[in-house]
Amino acid sequence: PQPPAGHVYQIWLIQDQTVESAGTFLPQGMDSWTIIRTTRSPLDYELIRVTLEPVGGSTTPSGPVVLEGRLGATV
Q1: Inter-residue contact 48 to 10 (CB < 8 Å)
Q2: Strands lying side by side in the sheet with 18-25
């Protein structure tokens, strides 16, 4: 759903205790994509998390978590 006025969704990539922002986005409908660009492989991270943050994003996650999933290579 669209976030409340003055807010965006922010993507976080997490490994151990390190949290790295991967950008912000607004939903654009069912056929849209959000591209995440990082300097490392997505397999280098444990988790991906999406939070609700103020427009412009945050330096660390501060809003409620709306989506979370595990990343990384599985053996």
Answers
A1: no
A2: 18-25, 7-15, 47-54, 65-70
- Residues 39 and 28: their CA atoms lie apart, in Å, by 26
What's 16-71 look like in SS3?
Answer: CCEEEEEEEECCCCCCCCCCCCCCCCHHHCCEEEEEEEECCCCCCCCCCEEEEEEC
pLDDT tens, position by position, for the chain (75 residues)?
899 999 999 999 999 989 999 999 999 877 778 888 788 888 889 999 999 999 999 999 999 999 999 987 654
Task: Tell me the whole-structure pTM to 2 decimals.
Answer: 0.87
Write down the residue that tokens 């599985």 correspond to: 74
CA atoms of 21 and 11, how far apart (whole Å): 6
